[in-house]
Every structure is written in C-alpha cells, then in structure tokens.
Fold:
Amino acid sequence: MGITRQPDDSVLRPSAEVAEALEQGAPVVALESTIISHGLPRPRNLEVALELEEIVREAGAVPATIAVLDGVAHIGLDKSELERIADDPGLRKLSFRDLPAATALKASGATTVSATSFLAARAGIRIFATGGLGGVHREWAETQDESADLDMLSRTRITVVCAGVKSILDVPATLQRLETRGVTVAGFRTDEFPGFYLHSSGERVDWRIETPAEAAGIMRAQDTLGGPETALIVANPVPVSEQLDPELHDRVLAEALAAAEQEEVTGQAITPFLLGYLVRGTDGASLEANLAAVRGNARLAGKIAAAFRRGD
Ligand code: PSU
Ligand code: MN
Structure:
C-alpha cells in the first residue's frame, strides 16, 4: 500500500505582501500568467503585467499574479519574476492537470484560468481577474476540445471577472456547458454576455448586476447556501467605444480559423495561435480591445474584493 499524503501548503509560495494581506483578511485579487506569456505579444506583455497589478492596487486590493517557477507555485510575483514570465519564449502553459507534473519535475510555466483558479482558491484568494475564459471550441464535434477552465470553474469557489469567453470559441455551447455544470453567471451592467473583443456576443445572460456590492452579495449567498463549490462569473464587457470593429473581427476571425485548420494547429497551441493571428490580422486593434477588457476586469475585481471584505 502506498503512503497517502495530505495537502501541504509548502507547495505554495505566497509573496510577503500577499501572505500578509491574506493573514489580515485584506482584499486580494489573483491574476493569471498565461495571458502574459502566451496571450499577448512581447514586449507589451510585461508592461501589461505591471499595469494590471497597479490597477488592482488603485481599486483597493493586493494583486497576486500566479505562476509556477522551478516547481513552486508562486502566489504573487516580484518584478524579476514577472519579467521571467513575460520574456521566456519556452515557458510552458500549465492547466490544472499539469500542476502535479510541474511541481514534481521542478518545471516552470504560466498558469491558465483553470490552474490559476485552483491555486488561488487553494491559497485562500476568492477573486480573480482575466481577459476571456476558455470554453468549447468551434470544432468540438471533431476534436472534443473544451477548455479545462470550465471544469475547474464548476468545482472551485472563486469569482472570475472576465469579458466573457474568447470569441474564437463556440459561445452558445460554452454558455450551455456553464449552465449544465452549475456555474453562476452575472452580467455587470449588461443583459448580454460580453464577446471578449466585442461589447456583446449577442447571447443573453439571466442575471444582471449593477454594483461591486451586488457581486459580493452573490458570493456571500454562495457560502450561505453551501452545496457544490462552484464559481461565480462576473461578465464585464469592454465598453463599446473600445471594442474591436465587429466587421473586422468577424472577417479576421474567419481567416484565423481557416489558417488554424490549414496548419493543423491543435490542443494547447490553438488559443495562442488564434489570438496571435487576430493581433496581426487587425494591425494590433484586437490587442487594444483585449487590453481594454483586461484592464476593466482588473479594476472591477479589485472593487469586488474590497466590497466583499467590507461586507457590503
Ligand atoms: N484571456 C486572455 N488571453 C489569454 C487567456 C485568457 O485575454 O491568453 C488564456 C487563459 O489562460 C485561458 C487560456 O485559461 O487562454 C485558455 O486556453 P485553452 O483554450 O487552451 O484552455
Ligand atoms: Mn483546449
């Protein structure tokens, strides 16, 4: 018979600032690192990583960017660690299932929404900001490619502030999966599910909230009700004034999907491939829309964290 090991916090390394904030119950917002390493072009990605942390601070919370470095899950990175995430072209993309291997084999990698949600919740962080979630890919019937993000959010008590799911995906199918898996979705000042680069995906959401305090109230109700440890998705659209031109979006996305098929891009590589194609194919306009979305999400997450802490 093998030896059963209990979970042990020595696998996590919170930064001094994050450890102190968590100990005091101060608001903390987790940020993922895959968007930095695989989702945004260099060298802009480092600027963005630093800027997002600053936005979270301005909103009244402590930022904790999460990544695995040499087998250790860092909860909160310093500047040189952020540089490593932004600069290393060989850095792995780690979803939840990769964490045991990365830990045991002392590997380094950026964490996706699934891995970041798990590690954040494990460290005691309740709120997380990103750009767009992963979801069901358009070729699902052939590939069965559904992001591990959805599964993790159906069993992790975390609030994810995002601009919907990436528009490269099958959005209605993704919303259906979230419904089936019991993940609560609320639109922030919108009745429509956001479309990542676009203000709206055209799909409806059942719940609309107007304030960070309402998000905090839903989080408290999750705890009071009990039951399966599911996530809350706060879907926060990019403002119409900062969205990508919808026509340009649709045209370049169609080209990107065709190119991915032609070049037989599959698995983990497909999301970075499509995002990169959109940046080039729109002359950087998709990047600006993506950044506007992520900035807004970091700001709102900071405010929700502060409201949750105050008990608003
Ligand atoms: N949001 C962005 N850019 C990104 C991602 C999210 O604005 O690059 C990343 C997240 O880390 C998400 C991942 O978890 O893309 C999804 O990858 P996949 O489809 O392979 O599960
Ligand atoms: Mn996938």
